[in-house]
Amino acid sequence: MSRDTQLKDRWEQLVNILSNQFSQGEDLDLDAIIYLIGVQELGKVHKEFKKDEKLNLMHIAICRLLEPYGFYEFEFFDEDGWPHYKVKEELPPLKAGEQSVLMKEAIVNYFLEREVIK
Q1: What separation in angstroms does the CA of 32 have from each of 36, 42, 55, 95?
Q2: Strand partners, 84
Q3: pTM of this prediction?
Q4: Other CB atoms closer than 10 Å to residue 15's CB: what's the count?
């Protein structure tokens, strides 16, 4: 199986699992899954978040997802329990499609590590 086909299959499997768990019949999109990862990483799953906090949650998720690729490094948790990352290497300029593939690959790897998918 080619790498692209395997990524596509795992992505579809993951979207189905997460959509069934967190959505009322609609497939979650990439941003919604990134948001869920941010909530997971913060560890405050039953809290209501303000708009700016939601953006911060997505930032946390992106940092965490791209950490294994060498772009970010975890630094510390602040007094409110929010993780902070520092930039290790700037992301190269990517086209929208390339960005999407990178994020999907990183998300699939995140959930493979947690054994949510195989």
Answers
A1: 6, 15, 11, 21
A2: 76
A3: 0.91
A4: 19
